[in-house]
Amino acid sequence: xxAREIVVDLRLQELTLLEDGRVRCAFxxxxxxxxxxxxxxxxxxxxxxxxxxxxxxxxxxSGSVFVARRATGEVYSDQLGLQYPGRDWMLSRIVWxxxxxxxxxxxxxxxxxxxxxxxxxCPDTEPMGTPASRGCIRMRNxxxxxxxxxxxPGISVRIHE
Length: 161
Fold this sequence. Notes:
The chain is mainly beta.
């Protein structure tokens, strides 16, 4: 059985899926505009070792809209984007992260799970390769679907600078 791991490099703004230590695929991402950090309410992307606690959205169409981790039945369009300007769109798939390091990204005021930090799709008009999110790790819709289809709950996710 092979070992898979996700590595997110905040400096390069890149997510890599490794299998047995070898690159299986890599994608551009967009992490937090506020930079790295673990504090509740900071709007920062947490660092350290995490696991994928839940995988949400299997089988839904590309561009499916989520609110509070639930599919609304809508599919994102430019018109929908204009109707709700400023919304932090979560589209296609959600990988909900849980921290593994007590006092760094788990428990108390630094708990990644309670901060609702995800890897998720976003409108394809959003920039990749530059920090612009509100704390989560954003990906293109085709990319998050391609990644998601290779994951199982519990896969490790290492986020570093």
